[in-house]
TrEMBL record:
The keyword Repeat does not apply. InterPro entries: PPM-type-like_dom_sf, PPM-type_phosphatase-like_dom. Residues 62-299 form the PPM-type phosphatase domain. Signal peptide: none annotated. The chain crosses the membrane at residues 6-26. This is Serine/threonine-protein phosphatase. It comes from Paenibacillus faecis. It comes from the Bacteria. It holds the Pfam family PP2C_2. Keywords: Membrane, Transmembrane, Transmembrane helix.
Length: 301
């Protein structure tokens, strides 16, 4: 992820965790998701809400997830997946590297999105859910920071009635793999995108853009005082063999598009696919490997 050049002492995680409520922070890999009662999986743990049995209107979606701490001292990525009557939701937040409160920020944001998603009763409410959860997350993170520096990127997806609804802020990615190719979905909120626009406008050269040492820095994220909204895309109709991938930038910075394609073309079950992606990241052995997290969503076969 684009680092911020600030270092602050770590000390607010305990206060943030008081807001978690319905989530349990257990760092372990889990396989499979049952579509019975509404369920939330977060950071590796599964929490089930007791309600009458039902089938989600979107059909059964198989979910796989995996993550690695990389070479970081702490795991600042946090993730969750939830199934409700409306459909299947997945979310990944990547706490800003080099900042003491990244873990608090990502945990709080994912918690807020998971909680707010349980209130959604229909497809028409999904865009509003994304924006409301983002605003609430940003406000809560700023309150917890109390003037300190911190924040998190976030990417979220909801599959409902065969359509992919999505939203993102920062530089975590949502990828759609169809017919052996990646279809672009979200864009990154980094200075690199601003520089690219200036290149296209003829204001600077491409060489100047590439040489800018600030190009990887975030221009929008949760926990930012200037945050106004996140990118919310138009729903994407899904085809039967589509694979939806959510990942923190620790995945895409480590693996090439071709390497990801080779894994996805094996058509393994989503959990095995997620584990192989993270294993491939770890096999690279990069000295400065960032935290890396991936969630795979696919129509159950």
């Amino acid at each position: 992820m684009g680092d911020l050049n600030f270092w602050q002492s770590y000390g607010v995680l305990g206060a943030a965790l008081a807001l978690v409520g319905l989530l349990v922070l257990i760092r372990q890999k889990v396989a499979g998701v049952a579509a019975a009662a509404p369920r939330t999986r977060t950071g590796g743990a599964v929490v089930a809400e007791a309600t009458p049995e039902w089938e989600p209107v979107s059909g059964k979606i198989a979910v796989g997830n995996a993550q690695t701490i990389g070479r970081r001292q702490e795991q600042d990525d946090y993730f969750a997946s939830s199934i409700t009557r409306v459909g299947t939701m997945a979310v990944i937040a990547d706490g800003i590297s080099g900042v003491a409160h990244g873990r608090m920020s990502s945990t709080l944001a994912v918690t807020m999105f998971s909680r707010e998603y349980l209130k959604v009763t229909g497809q028409d409410e999904i865009p509003g859910f994304f924006q409301k959860a983002a605003v609430l997350s940003n406000r809560a993170i700023l309150e917890q920071l109390g003037g300190a520096i911190g924040g998190t990127t976030l990417v979220a997806a909801v599959i409902s009635e065969g359509r992919l609804h999505w939203a993102a802020v920062g530089d975590s990615l949502l990828l759609l793999f169809r017919d052996g190719e990646f279809l672009p979905v979200n864009s990154k909120d980094t200075l690199e995108q601003v520089l690219e626009a200036r290149v296209l406008a003829g204001e600077i050269t491409r060489e100047e853009a590439k040489a800018n040492p600030m190009r990887g820095h975030l221009t929008n994220y949760l926990g930012y005082g200037g945050f106004k909204s996140m990118e919310v895309g138009e729903p994407v109709p899904l085809e039967p063999d589509d694979i939806v991938i959510l990942c923190s930038d620790g995945v895409c910075d480590a693996l090439t598009e071709v390497e990801l394609e080779q894994i996805l073309l094996q058509r393994m079950p989503p959990q095995e696919t997620a584990e192989e992606i993270i294993a491939s990241v770890e096999r690279k052995g990069y000295k400065h490997q960032d935290n890396a997290t991936v969630i795979i969503l696919e129509q159950a076969r």
